[in-house]
Fold Inositol-3-phosphate synthase.
Amino acid sequence: MNKLGVWLIGARGSVATTAIVGASAVRALAAPLVLDLARLVARAHEKGRQGVLPELGYFFKSPLGTDEHALAAQYARLRAFAEELS
């Protein structure tokens, strides 16, 4: 029997599945975050920034360029970065 859903294969071979109904909810919730991330990266590029942007660690489970995992600290850094880009 085939199971419907979305199969996600992680970098280390981990597998996660999502039901069709759940996939729609995940997509609806993730879309605004992806748009915010894309806008911040585009603006940073306009300002001459390139490479890893540790200020965007708020968007990732295991952010590159920083060891900070406290959500409040990541959010504060993200807000400061957005102010710097404006």
